Amino acid sequence: QVQLVQSGAEVKKPGSSVKVSCKASGGTFSSYAISWVRQAPGQGLEWMGGIIPIFGTANYAQKFQGRVTITADESTSTAYMELSSLRSEDTAVYYCANGEAVAENWGQGTLVTVSS
Amino acid sequence: QSVLTQPPSVSGAPGQRVTISCTGSSSNIGAGYDVHWYQQLPGTAPKLLIYGNSNRPSGVPDRFSGSKSGTSASLAITGLQAEDEADYYCQSYDSSLSGFWVFGGGTKLTVL
């Protein structure tokens, strides 16, 4: 069973960037996909993008193209999601999840608050 | 607006059966892509409930079942229990520019 542990909550100013980490244990990190999904307060789930570490290339939802960067460090079994040009609407809980077609396991979530 | 459409809410009394629908289009469910379901209890991360349309991960009670037909899918919960009160989301793959993973807007299940 893969376990995913995310970094802690962040408070950011509008226009800045945030980088959230997701450390995996169990399984072979380089071979399984990691996706990032966010959930705004009281809202549903929204896929942002994903990466398969062994391939290194990330895919992004069109909505976030140019603003999000997903990377993976195989040496530490850690995936990262960086979101730039933050605005208030980016206030949300950000989750990482493993699985290529389905989110098999989820991280605990990281609350990112964007406020001036 | 979500790519997959779910009813905002459903309710049922303990012991009853409820179903939650998930309607997509020809670029996702109708294209033959699998549908998966997640349960999100209040204040927690989502948890995989059904994968590949109708398969249950280890530990998920057989009270939960899934099905798919055409451009739609359904989640059925029988023998409703108080602890089933949660938000439920469907998810599939979409071949259009809307994104690789697409989700329904979520359905709030209330156990009366």
Describe this structure in words.
The complex is a heterodimer of chains A (116) and B (112). Chain A is mainly β. In chain A, 0% of the residues lie in helices and 49% in strands. With 112 residues, chain B is mostly beta strands. Chain B is built from no helices and nine strands. In chain B, strands 1, 3, 4, 7, 8 and 9 form a six-stranded mixed β-sheet that branches. Chain B is globular, with a radius of gyration of 13 Å. The chains are: A mainly beta (116), B mainly beta (112). Chains A and B meet through strand 5 and strand 10 of A and strand 7 and strand 8 of B.
Annotate the secondary structure layout.
The complex is a heterodimer of chains A (116) and B (112).
Chain A: E1 3-6, E2 10-12, E3 18-25, E4 34-39, E5 45-51, E6 58-60, E7 68-73, E8 78-83, E9 92-98, E10 105-106, E11 110-114
Chain B: E1 9-12, E2 18-23, E3 36-40, E4 47-50, E5 64-69, E6 72-77, E7 86-93, E8 101-103, E9 107-111
Parallel strand pairs in B: 1-9
Antiparallel strand pairs in B: 2-6, 3-4, 3-7, 5-6, 7-8, 7-9
Indicate the low-confidence ranges of chain A by residue numbers.
none
Strand content of chain A: over 45%
Distance between the termini of chain A: 40 Å
- Number of E strands of chain B: 9
Element pattern of chain A in H and E:
EEEEEEEEEEE
Instruction: Give the strand tally of chain A.
Output: 11
Tell me the overall shape of chain B.
globular
CA radius of gyration of chain B is 13 Å
Quickly describe the structure.
Chain A has strands at 3-6, 10-12, 18-25, 34-39, 45-51, 58-60, 68-73, 78-83, 92-98, 105-106, 110-114. Chain A has 116 residues and is mostly beta strands.
